[in-house]
Amino acid sequence: MDLRAQDPISQAGIASQLRTRPEVRIIDRAAAADAADVVVVVVDVVDDGALRLLRQAQRTGTPRGVLVVTQIDEQQLVSAAECGFVGVVRRTEATPERLITVIGAVAKGEGYVPADLLGGLLTQVGRVQGQVLAPRGLNFTGLAAREIEVLRLVAEGYDTADIAVRLAYSERTIKNVLHAVMTRLNLRNRSHAVAYALRQGLI
Questions:
Q1: pTM, rounded to two decimals
Q2: Dihedral sign (CA 5, 6, 12, 14)
Q3: What is the CA radius of gyration of the chain?
Q4: Which long-range contacts (CB under 8 A, 24 or more apart) does 112-121 make?
Q5: In this predicted model, what pLDDT tens digit does every residue of 141-198 receive, in sequence order?
Q6: H-helix or E-strand containing 38?
């Protein structure tokens, strides 16, 4: 893991807690930052300076991040998530055991958010879906309802002509929908598109 903090005392404190733990290895950023699976950033609050630090950490190529923070609200949580930080631990709860657990979860592609923030975050997600995306025919996957329906029918084995009849569109429209989805999401073919939709829980 790559460890960064806004101040040297926080950096040294977290490093001393984790250096003795066999589950993690702190990587010297100057030597090999790109070898880290997870970056851990320690800040007091998610202000402009902290966001600069999060974006800088994201630019190193480390795919996932854990944020150790004193204070954070739902909007700041969203800002951190936009920078790839899917694990959040409050400093008051940042025991070595909790840090190891969250770092391990994030390294496996999971997330961790304090329970009191999760409810507010889900409320925000619902509001965005209902007020912003749904009126435009979108959802959080970036796929329109029609695109999801076409993918579902492809997954069920229907060919272009059958899908066109079932959805009352022309074959050309169905081909255009599939082409648009595959181009936008960098999918190679129909099978890849169906696999993507299954993984995302869309069908």
A1: 0.62
A2: negative
A3: 21
A4: 112/66, 112/86, 112/87, 112/88, 113/77, 113/87, 113/88, 114/88, 114/89, 114/90, 117/72, 117/73, 117/74, 117/77, 117/88, 120/73, 120/74, 121/74, 121/77, 121/78
A5: 667 778 889 998 998 889 999 999 999 999 999 999 999 888 888 888 888 888 888 8
A6: strand 38-45
